[in-house]
Amino acid sequence: MKEKLILGIETSCDETSVAIVKNGKEILSNIVASQINIHREYGGVVPEIASRKHMESFLFILKEALDKAGISLEDTNGIAVVNGPGLKGSLLVGLSFAKAIAFALNKPIIGVNHIEGHIYANFLEHSNLKTPFISLIVSGGHTSLILVTDIGRYQVLGNTRDDAAGEVLDKISNFLGLGYPGGPIIEKLAVKGNQNAINFPRPLMKSPNFEFSFSGLKTAVIYFIKEQKNKNVSLNLDDLCASFQQAVVDILVYKTISAAVKYNVRQIALGGGVAANQKLRDELKEKAFKKDLEVFSPPKELCTDNAGMIGAAGYYKLMRGMVDSYDLEVYTE
Ligand code: KG4
Ligand code: ZN
Q: What's this model's pTM, rounded to 2 decimal places?
């Protein structure tokens, strides 16, 4: 097979990332410039600042990605760019650069959905993942169960009705004054705590559909913290984090396995920033094993936002002729 090099571009939120991906599975470079330190002091991502930072750093990141891969722009066979969902201003920066490159070099442009990208992060690592499979995408913006029927073909089984799983981790961490992003901070404290210490609710866990709801859990945790304060009881942060994290993990694992059983598929692929959580990875694997299901998860650095996953998705779409024209637009949700 002739080798195909895809330039991947990811600027949907607060990471400016450019990657060179070979044949959809080999990362030649994947440069991620995180703006986390800038947004941290605001307790979350400030859209206006995010767009400006993408604009400032994009060409430097592009150059670094090309240098590391040892190629020039002319060597690429397609430009894969995330065009939604995400922050409008941030997406527009990446898409504008992508269009300029594609136009100047007469290369195909391939729009990639951000969630689609998270799914394809799995193909960078696992060659034995085959459609159809169930994918659980859990991040700061999304909690979705998706039946991937074929390359580029998806059936969304359910989303969250309110907060995303990562969003509640971030909000509780913020409420406790622990910092941003909350997921990794809570995970670290949870390791030392007792997951059965506090019995938090698991909303919609056993509902007969594949929708999620995390806002009730968030309220219960906040209520518990306030109540302890009012009673002058000192908080055991480790126990609190372990119990809260366990509630989130239980909901995600239960729903995902139910979906695989209902749709009679044997493989499950995790993705999104929350998929970097070791407890989620371990429990999903363990519970799935009992039902004879196989679980795939990307390496942790490919769970959070990066352009490698966009390049991978772009390759498979290009191979299927799923290319876009210069009127490609961004969408926010
Ligand atoms: O995919 P991502 O980088 O960006 C979005 O598309 O949102 O995900 C970021 C989210 C944040 O909510 C963050 O707290 C969460 O992923 N996260 C984690 C972990 N690492 C990142 N959540 C739980 N455990 C982790 N280790
Ligand atoms: Zn993401």
A: 0.95
